Amino acid sequence: MKNLLNYQSSEYDCGPVSLTNAIRYLFDREMIDPDILKYIMLYSLDSYNEKGESGKMGTSASAMLFLSNWLNQFGQVKHFPIHCEFLDGENVYLSKAGRIVTALQQGGAVVLRLYLEVGHYVLLTGVRGDEIFLFDPYYVEADDPELDREFLEEGITFVTDQPKCANRIVSMQRLNRLSRGFYEMGEYENREALILFNQDARLLPEETIEYFI
Questions:
Q1: Does some domain include residue 94?
Q2: Does 5 fall in a domain?
Q3: Is residue 162 within a helix (H) or strand (E), and if so which, with residue range?
Q4: Residue 50 is assigned to a structural domain of this protein
Q5: What are 116's strand-pairing partners?
Q6: CA atoms lying within 13 Å on the CB side of residue 132
Q7: What does the pLDDT look like over 133-159, one tens digit per residue?
Q8: Residue 203 domain-assigned (yes or no)
Q9: Cα(21)–Cα(5) distance, integer angstroms
Q10: Which of 51, 101, 180, 185 has the fewest CB atoms within 10 Å of its CB?
Q11: How many domains, in total, are found in the chain?
Q12: Could you report the per-residue pLDDT of 180-205, keeping only the tens digit for each?
């Protein structure tokens, strides 16, 4: 059985929560080894803020790259059907024939760094036309009168009936922007994405379709 996706417990843990959500999205609960959850938390929240406080700048790109390699090695040793690919810089761009969108069409999930006032990780889970379905672990309510107006800008739609998959739909055009507005990826030098597959459920290239589950 697939789990519901989780929200952050603090202002800082979007990285490990989004990575754990990728595991929850791709694999049935009965398949998930506790070591995966343990090591995601152990190796994330590694950045220090300007006051030297550990974890209060969230999770670094280095930690995401390390966890990508760790998960691949874990999969090989434990015969667990996971495969990860880490992208950064100009390789992180959304287009219909691009690596990230193709991964979503093959049934994969993507932990993506973008901006939500500050650097922030979300989980991409599907694509429909020029729209990306994603799960943002930072909990807000669409009907909250104090909701930041940036959530209501063009290219952002709230989803309320897919708790195992998505809570936002965001246009590729908005995500690809070089600026730092809500759900924009910003400058290329700060971009990163971690693609994950359940190899047992991965579609072949000739089988890829535009879909959202």
A1: yes
A2: no
A3: none
A4: yes
A5: 118
A6: 30
A7: 999 999 999 889 999 999 999 999 999
A8: yes
A9: 6
A10: 51
A11: 1
A12: 999 999 999 999 999 999 999 999 87
Place of tokens 């999930």: 109
In 3D, which of 191, 59, 66, 28 has the Cα closest to residue 137? 59
| Alpha-carbon span 74 to 70, nearest angstrom | 6
- Give the structural domain span for 101: 14-207
Residue 88 Cα to chain centre, angstroms: 14
**pTM given for the model:** 0.95
Please enumerate in sequence order all residues whose Cβ is within 8 A of that of 152, keeping only pairs 6 or more positions apart, or say none: none
Q: How far apart are CA 85 and CA 75, in angstroms?
A: 13
Q: What is 62-118 written as a DSSP string?
A: HHHHHHHHHHHHHHHHHT--EEEEEEEGGG----TTSHHHHHHHTT-EEEEEEEESE
The torsion angles phi and psi of 124, rounded to 5 degrees, stand at -85, 135
CB 19 within 8 A of CB 32: no
Which strands form 192-198's sheet, in the order they lie side by side?
Answer: 82-88, 192-198, 109-116, 118-128, 131-135, 168-171, 156-158
Looking at residue 110, which CATH number applies to its domain?
Answer: 3.90.70.10
